[in-house]
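Proteins fold reproducibly. Consider a sample protein:
=====
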Amino acid sequence: MGNTTIRVAVFDDNAYRRESLCMLINSSPKMTCTGAFFDCSNVIADVRRSAPDVVLMDIDMPNVNGIEGVKLIRVNFPKVQVLMQTVFEDDDKIFASICAGASGYILKKSSPAQLLQAIEDVYNGDAAMTASIAKKVLTAFQKNVFYENDQEISLTPREREMLGFLVKGYSHKMVASACGLSIHTVNTHIKKIYEKLQVNSVAEAVVKALNKKLI
């Protein structure tokens, strides 16, 4: 990441939490909070104005909720990473968020250090889903919930192996350990996987891999 400052926008209808999250983000030398918003009613204009690298998105908000917000961000700002905030890890809304294009999620009870690390992970393209959420995605594909297309995607055996670990919810570090490779080598392989799949996050890669039956 070097000396790059991660730009973060916060969407949360709780004023106290919204202010606390901004203060936490600004306390990190690696990050700056570029905007804080009550809900997603004006999400396109808000994201365009705040120009974040990462959006920290609450799921349950009035008017326009976080899931609808993710869909709008994904269509209009495909390179912006979205980290969902949730109370329960196995919430069906998390699954819906991932399918809508969210890059990952963080529990609201997580520590400040864990939250900042999650933002950094999402920014760097490393936001693994837990096994329970990955299983829900897999089950949905087995039930033909998602569309298929005929785009040709060619992955090497090593890339397919790594993609399989990502589907299981492995982080980049866990993939490196399982494959006996350095984290740098794994990051290089996964970057190539992203390019071939034309995605920007682990969640998108998993969804597309299952959709295309690449593993």
